[in-house]
Amino acid sequence: MVTLILIGLLGGLITAVSPCILPVLPVVFLAGGTGRGEDAGKPARSPGATELGGGAAGDGGKAADERGSGGTADGAVATAPPDAPARAPRNRRPYAVVAGLVVSFAFFTLLGVTIISALGLPQDILRYVGLGLLVLIGLGLIFPPVERLLEKPFARLPQRQVNKEGGAFALGLGLGLLYVPCAGPVLAAITIAGARGEISTDIVVLTLSFAVGTAVPLLLFALAGRRVAERVAAFRRRARGLRIAAGCLMIVLAVGLALDVTAAIQRSLPDYTSGVQKKIEDSDAARQQLSGLYDNSNKELSRCEDGADELRSCGQAPALEGIDSWFNTPGDRPVDLKSLRGKVTLVDFWTYSCINCQRAVPHLQDWDRAYRDAGLRIIGVHSPEFAFEKKRSNVVSGAEKLGVTWPVALDNELTTWDNYRNRFWPAKYLIDAEGTVRYFKFGEGEYDKTEKMIRELLRQADPTVTLPEPTDRAMDDLASDRTPETYLSNLRVRGYVGTPLVDDRPAVYRFPKGALPLNRFSLDGTWTAGYEQFTAGKDAKLAFTYRAKNANLVLAGTGQVTVLVNGEVTRTINVTGSPTLYRLTDDKEARTARLELRVDEGLQAYVFTFG
Which end of the chain is more exposed for a tag (fewer CB within 10 A), N or C? Predict the structure, then answer.
């Protein structure tokens, strides 16, 4: 039990600092410091003050005796002695927001599916409720009468402070319904048990420890927001404006979540926690604890190990069973694995809202295009992590947006997930022409190795097959000297030379004289060097000497980028919308070259990658 608790705590901590929770962080930060009215950071009134929860008199507060708080036992309003020192109101909003998020997330992850099924409600009702609650609380921050309406359910609570923080707790409840973290084995075990209604003591303990682990970083972030609001004079002077800004941010977040805009930003960021998550959540100890929560069917799959360096024989491929429905097939008819004998089959477990899965889709697209004629077939098994992912129309729409064109099976009851003893989103299983599982890969990464295994299996199936060039070649000639990923961030930047960077405000830069060394870049013209991106100003240029086959850059905004390689214009890129990866160069062989970009004013550049 102690080991299970530690695994849950560490899994929650890792999840809470992953890219997947970035959309909720600004709201958590601002919610921690947006106290009611204009009292943030001010001393409290005497205990006989009349407003609700420390709000200013002009903020719609009512007499304490009207709310049943702040009075004496017989209802009289308490009066402080004239010389009683004023005490600062204790802002517990950070605790209330995080508590609401944790309670909501843990409760509905375990019981949401059961409750929805019992009541006959739509599968995505919880998501709609969360979005609606986020909008209402945003409106409450902007319009005090709406906030007072939202606080009414808490008005009868005996403690005035609980009453005061009711809106913050409600905000946390809404965020918990929208909280879609990157799922590793721990969260997979919890959500699957909840989806089936198999709530054991071990699962409850795992859920609570995971929730506590998740809460710690979020609480620190909310407390930081409170501290900024209390210590920075500008926040105290502009408390009302800050509340309006926070309300607008919550509404924008709700719209972004509803339109799936936040996912595009998350996909553009590297999964910097995946390595740590795998070491902890997929360690031998964790695997033993988590696998013990389920049965031991299909033990032959244990002959394989994640990302092995060679093909192995891992038993007959389990059947695709318990499938709710199919799409991307003729007439939406099901696919039988036995009908694919003679072909190499890749079974991909995924969900459309999982950022890790979304980042893997382009590689699947490349393999489908490159190897379909050679005998590769891809089948996507959509095993939902959350209730709203069970709705067929949501999955079809999500797949269309991502460009998923291969057959997809809706594994809503997670039967096929169990058949394959799976623990990850995404997970890829390779099945040879005889129907035997030969290799599997959990999570992102090692795409070149997976492609190598695909090619080996295709040659085994047909020794005469002619295969195209690899799409994710290992590039041995670049293993030691390919230009590394380079962030355009004033705190994470490396390889920069030239005029010293000025943080967070426009400055004029000049290219250094002479040639740029390999793996170094420089700026020219006006740029704003920020924490997350560099923003182009007037006459903005960027030069980079790199070694690779191709160079790529994540860009956002609206405008054009002119690409020059060794002084010659090679292409013009039209940039529009949220951060997206754009291909700058695409050569057949690796080479060393000077890349120069002429960037329209207002465009934002995030990170260079090289392949």
Answer: N
Query: Phi first, then psi: what are they for 594, rounded to 5°?
Result: -100, 120
> What HEC string does 169-206 produce?
HHHHHHHHHHCCCCCCHHHHHHHHHHHHCCCCHHHHHH
CB proximity list for 387: less than 8 A, separation 6 or greater: 112, 113, 116, 123, 124, 125, 126, 127, 195
| Distance separating alpha carbons of residues 328 and 393, to the nearest angstrom | 13
- Which amino acid, residue 151? E
Give the pair of three-digit tokens for residue 339. 């009908």
| Chain centroid to CA 220 | 19
Reported as a single tens digit per residue, the pLDDT across 532-578 is 789 999 999 999 999 988 888 888 889 999 999 999 999 999 998 77
d(CA 393, CA 186) in angstroms, rounded, equals 28
327: alpha, beta or left? (left if phi > 0; alpha if psi -120 to 50): beta
Distances (CA, A) of 498 to 404, 513, 515, 517: 44, 9, 12, 12
Alpha-carbon gap, residue 561 to 369, rounded angstroms: 29
CA atoms of 297 and 316, how far apart (whole Å): 13
d(CA 18, CA 30): 19
Contact 177, 127 (CB under 8 A): yes
Q: Is the whole model's pTM more than 0.70, yes or no?
A: no
Tally Cβ neighbours within 10 Å of residue 393. Answer: 8
